[in-house]
Amino acid sequence: MTTHGGFEPVFCTIVPPHVLDKLAQAEDPALAGPARRTLQRDAFERTQRRLTTVIGATAAAAGADGKPLRTVHDARHGTDLPGHKARGEGDKPGKDATVNRAYAGLGATFELFLHAYRRDSIDGNGLPLNATVHYDRDYNNAFWNGEQMVFGDGDGEIFLDFTIPIDVIGHELAHGVTQYTANLTYFGQPGALNESLSDVFGALIKQYTLGQTAAEADWLIGAGLLAPRVTGTALRSMKEPGTAYDDDVLGKDPQPATMDDFVRTGRDNGGVHINSGIPNHAFYLAAKALGGHAWERAGQVWYDVLTGGELGQQAMFTDFATLTVKAARERFGEGEELDAVSKAWEQVGVRTL
Fold first, then answer.
1. pTM recorded for the entire structure
2. Is 84 designated active site?
3. Selected catalytic residue, list 171, 175, 273, 293
């Protein structure tokens, strides 16, 4: 698989390591066991991505122009990928709701990028969309491994089926878009931008599917994923970072909303899932200020920066913010769009050059 400037396979999960670490320390083995096994599996998959030579995506047959080419596989609770084919493009829905949700989520992601940004699949060239469901047993995560989507069923105690929230599907596929465009380094601030862009487009895919305006949307990532026993609403909140959950087992959502609370850590690839709350909040503020459908103006600006060729692999928050201001000016001129973007970054404490 090739991207501009070279390609290093990236393994990106929806549930951050710090959440699973906390869960792994639970006194109840029914909670700690699946978390520990998930962490071990994630570490193995992450290592595999680094060791694997990834071949060019051009070797795969592309879909027809403007049409998705989806295949959903069933791992049958094993870990061999991609697994057994369960549903192909154009096949009627089967009895497995998880397979059907994955298929629909792949399609919804394809639709947003095609209709809102005229992008043909995640690589812009009709790349087939492949997913595997029922991965491993009690697997508490979903991931993009550089080639495909993979979904666990959750343990039923803390996490439910990872195909339930459509924004989880969109989030992981958006890592593929980033991989084929800016290819942001998955560490520190560039990594937090990588995670934030996936949250942004995951949220936009959900809003596009539901026909919601910025004011109507909940701006939650992973709503519906947490089991009833968990005190929380989602994995992350773009509207109010740090408020998605506050649970006696999971702990409290650690995401900051502004640079005043930026977290310096060597864990989680330098806090990529934590500090992503800052650019997430900036996008929410810009989209809310502009009103209407968030994918039309704020989303367009963010997409312009991601795909414009000026965003470096080591980009910091300031670099990204500066490019969004430039993109807003180029696309919309002086006016409310430019003001909304500039003020959003100012409100979260990220300066623009």
1. 0.94
2. no
3. 273
